[in-house]
Write a structure and sequence with these properties.
With 315 residues, the protein is of the alpha/beta class. The protein has a single domain, classed as P-loop containing nucleotide triphosphate hydrolases (Rossmann fold, 3-Layer(aba) Sandwich). The chain has helices spanning 24-30, 52-60, 79-93, 108-117, 131-150, 162-173, 191-198, 222-231, 243-247, 270-284, 288-300, 305-310; strands at 36-37, 42-43, 63-64, 68-73, 98-106, 121-126, 154-160, 201-203, 208-216, 237-240, 260-261. The strands form 2 sheets. Strands 1, 4, 5, 6, 7, 8, 9, 10 and 11 form a 9-stranded mixed β-sheet that branches. A two-stranded antiparallel sheet has the order 2-3. A hairpin with a 4-residue loop joins β8 (201-203) and β9. GO terms for molecular function: ATP binding; ATP-dependent activity, acting on RNA; helicase activity; hydrolase activity; RNA binding.
Length: 315
Amino acid sequence: MSRNRSRGRRRSGNRQSSKPKVDLATLTAKLSDYTPIQPKERIRLETDRYEYIGRIMDMFTPISRGQRCLITSPPKAGKTTILKTIGKAVHKNHPDIFQLAVLIDERPEEATDFRRKMPFEVHASTSDRSSSNHIKVAEKAFTIALEKVLEGKDVLILLDSITRLARAYNVEHTGSGGRTLSGGVSAGALDIPRQLFGAARNLEGGGSLTIIGTALIETGSRMDEVIFQEFKGTGNMELLLDEELVLRRVFPAIDIASSGTRREEMMLDELERKQTPLLRRRLMDQSPVEGMQWMIKRLHDSKNNQNFLRSIPQL
């Protein structure tokens, strides 16, 4: 009996069909021909009353086209689930945005799951591949993204993770003759990862590149801590996942009090500008666990964020 040797090998769809035409350095340099302006055009993530991640992010960490967003996460806190939720929401609410997922040093089965479930391009270099392959895959994806941005399109990259990409550059940079800094990070090894993350911007008279990247914290690795500190403060949105919430099995494990977006007042509508500060003050009086449990209950009882925010004075 003949066997179908191809079974299980075929990857669904054309998730990695784009091919870059110009090298990454040339495209990065061309960004300087445009004036970067504040992100203003909102990316809405709310889709369903029971999809709490998008609803919470819309209120407390709003995203606009051209932002650099950092999701800081301890192990097993649900960062990949959050990225998937964001990807699906953007595909549904903003089909004009070209999306790519970039998975670096990822578990092979997780990469397969991403490819099968995400309705957009997925560029993955799994944990069994070399650091040079991690870099090659990431740079190809960024090249594709920047080509489209310079053509006037709006692009979103979901990067998981900045930490692992930085590790790969550090491995390739080690032995180049430079100094070694704290945590075993070679001097200059993080220059290109910073440039890639910094490429996210809203171009006046052009397109935009939004990057939502994850950074690992509380891993016990000094190198990971150094990498996180290098990127902390370089974005204009930070979503912090909380270890206590993870231990208590409360998801999404978002520390609302420690999360936020710079210049969020430019993105929020009138109701959000009025009510979100009241909601933040209420949550500040509670622990992250109590606050998230309270939020989940209230969101469950309201059909959408507008309905929920209008109810705040009566809470």
